Amino acid sequence: MNYYNFLLESREYQKGGVSYNWLNTSFKAIKEIIDNAHKVKIPVMLCQAGKDTYVKPNGHNKFAQKVNNCELKIYEDSKHEIYWEKDYIMHPYLDDVFSFYNKNI
Question: How is 10-65 classified by DSSP, letter by letter?
Answer without folding.
Answer: -GGG--SS--HHHHHHHHHHHHHHHHTGGG--S-EEEEEETT-SSS-HHHHHHHHH
